[in-house]
Amino acid sequence: MATAELLSVDEFCETAARIEREVARRLVGQQSVLRHVLICLIAGGHALLEGVPGLGKTMLVRTLADVLDLRFSRIQFTPDLMPADIVGTNILVEAPEGGRRFQFQAGPLFANLVLADEINRATPKTQSALLEAMQERTVTVANTIHVLEEPFFVLATQNPIEMEGTYPLPEAQLDRFLFKLHVAFPPPEELVEILNRTTTGLLPAVSRVADGATLLRMSRLARALTPAPAVVDYAVRLVLASHPSSDLAPPLVRRYARYGASPRGAQALVLAGKIVALLDGRQRVEVDDVRAIAPAALRHRLLLNFEGEAEGVTPDALVAELLRTVPAAA
User: Fold this and answer.
1) Does position 1 have pLDDT exceeding 50, yes or no?
2) Does the residue 125 lie in any domain?
């Protein structure tokens, strides 16, 4: 089948199911996180995974790279990491014709799937270099723009409980993530299975069941869907209601929110909603598809004011209030 041809819905579902099954051979539990990360990859977006150490965030990303046959790169973010350490630099080399010349040596960002481990430990200067790559799919070195190969995904992790020596991600960078996902501590039965797998022998091997070209074809199918006007209208009203100055904002948002979701939030709701429908074997996108991914798409785009932070209100509580109060039809 030619690369330009769209996948059928059945092919889309079967490919996604094979990816999830293969990752589950190595990763215990975390099905919701895996599903949301897969939605991000199909959408061509980036994901921020937040959770305490040891919950399998790194293993999830590494396993996805193996299953999807993607060029993988891991960057351990530290306070002394410089932009050149991630984007690359020009080095002086011997020219074949004699003499010396500068040659660009690509950094670890030149991969298909980049794990940005503990991203909030990098300085703002390094974070800004990553920001260009995430948004523009390019890096700039010595006034020369280098284009990153498609597909390109950043899956970043951060530890929510260890804040010493960290640099909170600016709102502009948070907005570049399609989803922010909470990785929860496993229940007892999953913890037992983790111990059985990791203390008795080697981890199970996984097979490559898809590649970058397949992901791009899945993305094209999702983008080819046209949702009903009512679905788009609902996404728009959710985003508008997240702003405390909006007439649509519920009292909780007006009291505790400083600023609401950006237009990227609305884009995330609609595009991810289409992928949710396709994963369910449907070409018709429903309001419930948007509602299903609203927490992941909006929680990092809702900024709390001082009162909200002082009273311990969470962005998830505001998103839940939006889903409770914003009607499905105008």
Assistant:
1) no
2) yes
CB proximity list for 313: less than 8 A, separation 6 or greater: 252, 256, 304
User: Where among 163, 184, 216 does a domain terminate?
Assistant: 216
- The range of the structural domain enclosing residue 294 comes to 225-325
Quickly count: other Cβ atoms within 10 Å of residue 310's Cβ. Answer: 10
CATH number at residue 123: 3.40.50.300
Answer for the pair 117, 58: CB distance below 8 angstroms, yes or no.
Answer: yes
d(Cα 122, Cα 137) in Å, to the nearest integer? 20
Element (H, E) at 32: helix 31-43
User: In total, how many domains does the chain have?
Assistant: 2
Backbone angles phi, psi at 302, to 5 degrees: -100, 115
Average pLDDT for 230-245: 94
pLDDT of residue 324 exceeding 90, the answer is yes
Looking at residue 238, what is its pLDDT? 94
- At 164, the pLDDT band (50, 70, 90 cuts) reads low
3-class SS shares of the chain: helix, strand, coil, % to 5:
45, 15, 35
Q: What does the chain come to in residues?
A: 330
When mean pLDDT is compared across 213-217, 239-243, 266-270, the lowest value belongs to: 213-217
pTM of the complete model beyond 0.90: no
Beta partners for 113?
A: 72, 153
**Tokens 């898809």 correspond to what residue?**
210
Cβ burial of 106 (10 Å; 0-12, 13-18, 19+) is middle
Q: What is the DSSP letter of 78?
A: -
Contact 144, 183 (CB under 8 A): no
pLDDT tens for each residue of 51-89: 877 777 888 888 888 898 888 889 888 888 888 888 888
Both 147 and 15 in one domain: the answer is yes
